[in-house]
Amino acid sequence: MIAAMKRRAFITLLGGAAAIPLAARAQQQPMPVVGFLNSGSAAEWAHLVAAFKEGLNEFGYVEGKNVAVEYR
Length: 72
Hints:
Blueprint: H1 2-26, E1 33-36, H2 42-58, E2 68-71
Parallel strand pairs: 1-2
């Protein structure tokens, strides 16, 4: 009887410990992705890209930390 109780307690503990990483992973927010499309060379658009990044920073977005930017 005691062995059965220990086994149940162990299984319960093991199941609870396995759920902790799942709960932590479920709370993570996906990083938003912003697309920056242009039709010219990167050099032509460098000043606009800099202004775009500055605007993102003003609103609290930092590329690579809390927002991803796709350049095409």
